[in-house]
């Protein structure tokens, strides 16, 4: 049985979690078994609506100790729940919560783990999961040898489906939850911004934009496209942009549908973090910039002239659509 | 205070990624090795800063790897740290590696165990979480800031769509990323001192491997860039809409 961990932030189930649900259901079909969900705490909307993704049951653990996140407590609770319901495969999103808990669950259950999976495993002979390695420069096919298997799914690798006219059954699970040791004292939301790893479109700026005061034209384009914003490492290091926007081998790895690189040279360490993007557009005034070799579309030109025109053209296209 | 810093050896960020034996093995010929940047820039430097504030602090470095990992661990010792432990075994299975480090942590009783948020080769992001579960300590993933006051740590950590600030008492396992510290360059004194710092070699404890790498693949090369004139951005918009279906 496949058990999908249903992550939520601010009591809302996010896109990355719905991707994990879609993946878990597809995997269950492939294995000829059922897919169920595991929900710790409560969410605003009725979780039985996840039946639209063909999840059958949602096992829900409701305990006051789960209202704030503590990895140690969540790991123990998830491991106990997986054992109780007899899960043979666990699926997480490789989002921030997944990164905090799936390794611990793997250690407690002694269940082989592959993090950052990008497609369904090959299960005809064994259980082999494809994941991105060398920070996006290659893929590895990793075989899990244990009876219980754990996969965390790289965000933006698996399209959500949904739309089935079924409801999931909510089944309360009675699992003793231990008290945590962690106290959350503040939460700082990057409010209004689109989450970088989940975004369909990412607009990213490099040193070619010359200084933080010039980011307005990039933000305008991002706003018009409903895109998340990112930057190269020197831009983050110089504090022109917040450090969580730094993408690349030593920053965030992204795989959006569309990545637009503006004034970024395309150093190998930058490409590593973005080359799983489906379509890459490069705007750079230097025709020799290495980024063009990794791009699908390019404009050789001055970002300060091209960006406002591009934003305008997109506005016009949207107006005429 | 006693800190354990986990150090991993990874290929240099500019290393050519290629595979031998029909895609079964990473091609190591000509590859320069470095300390995994997250381990070096963030966890190790933060540990050193804590020792600079409180000189009674003891820092141990640990790596799981063969003798070929020694230059890397000496490099780390040149930045700081009192002694190093190398667990003499090679593995790509996170659980096996974490079990080795947990064994050391269980005997030495560290207040803090630091890892990088992931390694830049296998991108597992799982060693810290596994160690924490194996020694039953709280786990703080994706830290962007780490402060210590007595035996209480205040940690800012990345969550989906933002950050949260948490406090926790030691012992605690922390995975570090950008923000925790700033990269340092080792100086001559550090390099000289590193030569005589103790480097203990331990044989591995019995532990299972739960996974194995079957093969590697390289991504398919791009077809080639379509260039659009800067005076015709409408054409780019059209291509992105009609051809790439990206907007
Ligand atoms: C160990 C290590 C890890 C690293 N990790 C990362 C990482 O994770 N992410 C990362 O990004 N980098 C990383 N780097 C740094 C990387 O090597 C490059 O230095 C960096 O990516 C360059 O950033 P950039 O492209 O913004 O700047 P530059 O290389 O300076 O490029 C600026 C570009 O802007 C163009 N330009 C200038 N003016 C204009 C204009 N008016 N209009 C249009 N284009 C213009 C220029 O032609 C140039 O191509 C790492 C380096 C090392 C050594």
Description:
The complex is a heterodimer of chains A (321) and B (247). Chain A has 2 domains: 171 residues, Rossmann fold (3-Layer(aba) Sandwich); 120 residues, TPP-binding domain (Rossmann fold, 3-Layer(aba) Sandwich). A 7-stranded parallel sheet of chain A has the order 7-10-6-1-4-5-11, sandwiched between helices. Chain A has a 5-stranded parallel sheet with strand order 14-13-15-16-17. A two-stranded antiparallel sheet of chain A has the order 2-3. In chain A, strand 13, helix 4 and strand 14 form a beta-alpha-beta unit. The mean pLDDT of chain A is 96. Chain A is built from 7 helices and 17 strands. In chain A, helix 2 packs across helix 3. Chain A is an alpha/beta fold. By secondary structure, chain B is an alpha/beta fold. Chain B has one domain: Rossmann fold, CATH 3.40.50.620. Helices cover 29% and strands 31% of the residues of chain B. Chain B has 6 helices and 15 strands. A 9-stranded mixed sheet of chain B has the order 11-10-9-12-8-1-6-7-13, sandwiched between helices. A two-stranded antiparallel sheet of chain B has the order 2-5. A two-stranded antiparallel ribbon of chain B has the order 3-4. In chain B, helix 2 links the parallel strand 6 and strand 7. In chain B, helix 2 packs across helix 5 and helix 3 packs across helix 4. The longest helix of chain B has 17 residues. Chain B starts with a strand and ends with a helix. Classes of the chains: A alpha/beta (321), B alpha/beta (247). At the A-B interface, helix 2, helix 3, strand 7, strand 8 and strand 9 of A face helix 1, helix 3, helix 4, strand 9 and strand 10 of B.
């Amino acid at each position: 049985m496949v058990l999908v961990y249903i992550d939520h932030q601010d009591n809302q189930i996010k896109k990355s979690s719905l991707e994990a649900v879609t993946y878990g259901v597809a995997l269950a079909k492939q294995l000829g078994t059922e897919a169920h969900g595991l929900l710790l705490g409560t969410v605003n909307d009725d979780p039985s609506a996840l039946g639209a993704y063909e999840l059958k049951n949602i096992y829900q653990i409701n305990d006051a100790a789960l209202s704030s996140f503590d990895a140690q407590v969540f790991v123990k609770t998830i491991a106990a729940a997986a054992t109780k319901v007899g899960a043979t495969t666990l699926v997480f999103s490789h989002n921030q919560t997944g990164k905090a808990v799936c390794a611990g669950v793997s250690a407690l259950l002694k269940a082989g783990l592959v993090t950052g999976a990008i497609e369904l495993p090959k299960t005809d002979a064994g259980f082999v999961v494809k994941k991105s390695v060398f920070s996006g420069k290659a893929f590895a096919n990793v075989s899990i040898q244990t009876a219980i298997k754990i996969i965390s799914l790289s965000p933006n690798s698996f399209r959500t489906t949904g739309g089935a006219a079924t409801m999931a059954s909510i089944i309360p699970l009675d699992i003793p939850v231990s008290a945590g040791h962690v106290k959350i004292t503040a939460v700082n939301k990057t409010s209004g911004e689109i989450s970088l790893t989940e975004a369909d479109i990412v607009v990213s700026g490099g040193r070619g934009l010359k200084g933080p005061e010039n980011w307005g034209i990039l933000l305008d384009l991002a706003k018009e496209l409903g895109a998340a914003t990112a930057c190269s490492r020197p831009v983050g290091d110089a504090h022109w942009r917040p450090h969580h926007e730094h993408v690349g081998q030593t920053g965030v790895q992204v795989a959006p549908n569309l990545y637009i690189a503006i004034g970024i040279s395309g150093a190998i360490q930058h490409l590593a973090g973005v080359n799983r993007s489906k379509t890459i557009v490069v705007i750079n005034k230097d025709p020799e910039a290495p980024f063009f070799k990794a791009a699908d579309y390019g404009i050789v030109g001055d970002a300060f002239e091209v960006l406002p025109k591009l934003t305008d053209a997109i506005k016009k296209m949207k107006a005429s659509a | 205070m006693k800190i354990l810093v986990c150090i991993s050896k990874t290929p240099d960020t500019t290393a050519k990624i290629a595979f031998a034996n029909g895609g079964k093995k990473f091609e190591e010929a000509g590859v320069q090795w470095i300390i995994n940047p997250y381990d070096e820039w963030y966890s190790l430097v933060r540990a050193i800063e804590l020792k600079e504030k409180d000189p009674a602090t003891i820092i141990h470095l640990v790596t799981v790897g063969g003798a070929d990992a020694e230059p890397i661990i000496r490099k780390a010792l040149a930045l700081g740290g009192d002694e190093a432990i190398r667990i003499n075994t090679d593995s790509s299975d996170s659980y096996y590696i974490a079990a080795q480090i947990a064994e050391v942590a269980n005997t030495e009783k560290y207040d803090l165990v630091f890892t990088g948020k992931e390694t830049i080769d296998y991108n597992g992001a799982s060693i810290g979480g596994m160690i924490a579960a194996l020694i039953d300590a709280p786990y703080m993933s994706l830290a962007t800031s780490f402060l210590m006051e007595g035996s209480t740590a205040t940690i800012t950590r990345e969550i989906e769509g933002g950050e949260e600030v948490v406090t926790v008492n030691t012992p605690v396992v922390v995975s570090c990323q950008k923000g925790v510290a700033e990269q340092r360059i080792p100086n001559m004194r550090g390099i000289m001192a590193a030569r005589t710092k103790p480097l203990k070699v331990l044989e591995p404890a019995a532990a299972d491997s739960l996974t194995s790498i079957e093969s590697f693949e390289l991504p398919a090369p791009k077809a080639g860039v379509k260039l659009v004139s800067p005076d015709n951005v409408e054409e780019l918009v059209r291509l992105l809409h009609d051809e790439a279906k990206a907007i």
